[in-house]
Structures are given as C-alpha cells and as structure tokens.
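TASK: fixed-backbone design
INPUT:
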C-alpha cells in the first residue's frame, strides 16, 4: 500500500492562470465593459403579534423538515426579535445559514443572506417558497449544496451511487449523467455536508470549484476555486479537505500560500 503522501495530479479547467493574471492580458481577448455596481437591498421588518410569530415559526420549521438537505444538516429555526435564523451546528458552534424576516408593508417574508456585516435581501414570498429558494442554492450564497438537495428529493432520501469516469469527472452509476463536485465530495468521498460547505468565504464569492489533486487513498483532496467572470478569470483560492483521525476537516487556503497537497497539509497543521 502506498503512503498517503503519494498522490496523483488531476488536470483542472479554464482557470489555469498564474496568480494575478487575467484574460485581458492576452491578445485577442475582448474585454467586457464594467457593469454598474448593484447595492444589496436591506430589509425593513414589520411587527407581528406573538400568535403570528408562532404560526410563522411552525410554517418555517415544517418547510425545513421537508428538505432532505436541511434535515441532514440538522438546521434549526431560532427566533430572535422580529427575525428567524436558520442555523446548523459546526463543531459545536451554531452558525447561521440564512435569515427570514417578515417584510414591512407586505404580507411576504424575506429570505436574507449574510454579506459582510449585514443581512441583505435574496428573495421573498411565503415561508415554504423562500425555504425552497434556500435549498436550491448552488452558487454559494448560502451553502452551494442545492444539487445534493435535489438529488436526495428525486431519490426519496436514498444515497445515489456515484462512479468516477475520468480523473475529474463523476457520474451517477444508474443514469451515467454527470453530477456536481459537491455531490462527488459527499456521496463518493464521504465528506460530511458541513465540511463540503467549506470554505464558505470562497463560495460566498460565487467562485467555481474544480478538482485539482487527491491522494491515492482519497484522504486528501485539493479543490481550486476560480472566479466565474469569463472576462477576468482568476484563482480565488483552494479548498483543502483532509480525513484525519476519524474526522474530515475542510479549510480555505489562499493561492499564494498553497497550491499543492503538501503545501495545503502544512497550512492545515498550522491551523489546528
């Protein structure tokens, strides 16, 4: 059996650029005009009675219970003031994944995402509708695990079997249809959902992940996160997933610090 540090290198996609380099530096690339910055909208809450508050809490909890993803994450609903926080446990620490607020001047509820030090509007509607919006997230505004939620819904909670067809491609065994990287990390490598969500700092930027490198025993996995802007593709950072002493760890690694498994391992050891 080969040692864990013996590894195979996996080819990655369109983000094969030097750090700090972007497509505009190459001839023949048309630059897209800069778009006007959109200021996120903050939500003003309306006052509701205790009866309305309890009814809304039950509706949100019922909607959460219908999601296999949120159920597996053991997401709880906590009411604080006029807001409802959806939280999950990460290593004994409750972390918010989203916030729901009754909107002022409207019967609707707002689904809010955390941005910097503020909560901003993402969508609105009934509690069931906005919980479905939360579950559908695939970019990383909340969790980037929307494909897993949909797969579990279609499979009625059963775990689908995934096979690896190329060093960087995974498909469902039954249908041979491709699956997302998040599905591969969870269903194929067995990484817990709370770890697959990491690094949230990169996912919150809507960076696109691609498999870069793994160890031969699949206990070390390095994922590259790249910007989705085709006019300016840049490496945002790396996600390093490590199985160690019976637990999986997930950590974000800046590109200037680590670009290989060995470098990411050294960074993780310093962080533990």
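OUTPUT:
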């Amino acid at each position: 059996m080969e040692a864990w540090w013996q590894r195979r290198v996996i080819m990655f996609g369109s983000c094969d650029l030097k750090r700090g380099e972007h497509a505009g530096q190459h001839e023949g690339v048309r630059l897209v005009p800069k778009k006007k910055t959109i200021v996120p909208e903050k939500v003003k809450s309306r006052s509701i009675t205790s009866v309305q508050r309890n009814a809304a809490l039950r509706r949100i909890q019922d909607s959460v219970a219908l999601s296999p993803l949120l159920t597996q994450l053991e997401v709880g609903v906590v009411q604080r003031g006029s807001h409802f926080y959806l939280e999950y446990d990460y290593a004994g620490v409750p972390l918010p994944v989203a916030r729901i607020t009754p909107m002022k001047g409207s019967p609707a509820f707002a689904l809010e995402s955390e941005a910097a030090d503020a909560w901003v509007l993402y969508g609105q509607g009934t509690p069931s509708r906005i919980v479905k919006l939360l579950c559908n997230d695939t970019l990383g505004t909340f969790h980037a695990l929307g494909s897993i939620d949909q797969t579990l819904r279609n499979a009625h909670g059963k775990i689908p079997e995934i096979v690896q067809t190329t060093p960087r491609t995974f498909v469902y065994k039954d249908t041979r249809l491709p699956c997302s990287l998040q599905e591969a990390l969870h269903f194929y490598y067995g990484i817990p959902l709370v770890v697959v969500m990491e690094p949230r700092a990169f996912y919150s930027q809507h960076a696109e992940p691609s498999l870069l490198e793994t160890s031969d025993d699949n206990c070390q996995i390095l994922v590259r996160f790249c910007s989705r802007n085709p006019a300016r593709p840049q490496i945002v950072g790396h996600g390093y997933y490590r199985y160690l002493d019976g637990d999986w760890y997930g950590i974000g690694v800046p590109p200037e610090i680590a670009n290989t498994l060995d470098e990411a391992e050294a960074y993780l050891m310093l962080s533990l």
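COMMENT: Residues 1-25+199-272 form one domain.
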